[in-house]
Design a protein that fits this description.
The protein is mainly alpha-helical and 82 residues long. The chain has helices at 4-17, 38-52, 67-81. It has one domain: Orthogonal Bundle (Non-ribosomal Peptide Synthetase Peptidyl Carrier Protein, Chain A), CATH 1.10.1200.10. It starts with a helix and ends with a helix.
């Protein structure tokens, strides 16, 4: 069972990358598999921040390589907020 955070992040990545949601799995490498460049990465980060009302530090962005890592980061940030 996938959680809402994962579904939302996949949806955001799909919107920005142009890939179909069905093609985006937690194991996908955001840069290599989904062709996300630095500009798109910023778009995705901003969209995630707005959606979940969290703040992702600039130095954390390059560390997010896979979809799963993005989900884990947001879940960590959300757990600190609530």
């Amino acid at each position: 069972m996938t959680n809402n955070v994962e579904q939302e992040i996949i949806s955001i990545i799909a919107d920005v990358s142009g890939f179909d949601k069905d093609e985006i799995t937690p194991e996908k490498n955001i840069v290599q598999d989904l062709e996300v460049d630095s500009i798109k990465a910023i778009e995705i980060t901003v969209a995630i921040e707005k959606k979940f009302k969290v703040s992702i530090r600039d130095e954390d962005v390059p560390k997010i390589v896979s979809v799963k890592q993005a989900v884990e980061l947001v879940e960590r940030l959300l757990s600190k907020v609530h």
